[in-house]
Design brief:
two-stranded antiparallel sheet, alpha+beta, 153 residues, globular
Length: 153
């Protein structure tokens, strides 16, 4: 599987690159899949990173400040329910997420994926963070207003 991120230039972190200087070949893991030591797994979302993305308004992929519009990626069911597991991302960063979601098998980014998986991208101006009711529950991102929805094959 092709890796996802470029090394952040000039900031000492291997997790991030601004969307404007993203190279053709991306390396690393999405920020939201890494722990404090920089290690992680493409299958797992790190709870602390999910919260950090929400509260600091940084991209789930590159960890850079988000601008508007915001892009939420998830299953078609998440888009129907208007509740996403993945924090918002830049448009260019969404493109990097779509390849492993489309081609992966098993669990990718906290989602079960396979050949019949259906994905959606929702574009919004803002979101509400819904905190879990239980300690092991998921944080959810609810777009305030859906500006655009793209269902992907």
């Amino acid at each position: 599987m092709r890796s996802l991120l470029a090394a952040r230039r000039g900031h000492g972190s291997p997790h991030a690159s601004g969307p404007e200087d993203r190279p053709d070949h991306l390396i690393g893991l999405p920020f939201v899949c890494t722990g404090p030591d920089g290690r992680g797994d493409l299958a797992e979302l790190h709870r602390a990173r999910v919260v950090q993305c929400a509260l600091s308004r940084v991209c789930a992929v590159c960890a850079q400040t988000l601008d508007r519009p915001l892009h939420l990626v998830g299953t078609a069911a998440e888009a129907d329910d208007n509740a996403f597991r993945l924090p918002p991302a830049h448009a260019v960063c969404v493109d990097a997420l779509l390849e492993p979601l489309r081609t992966g098998d098993g669990v990718v980014l906290g989602h079960g994926v396979g050949p019949t998986s259906r994905w959606s991208v929702v574009v919004t101006g803002g979101f509400d963070l819904v905190r879990p009711e239980t300690r092991d529950g998921l944080h959810l991102f609810r777009p305030n207003a859906v500006l655009e929805r793209r269902d992907l094959a």
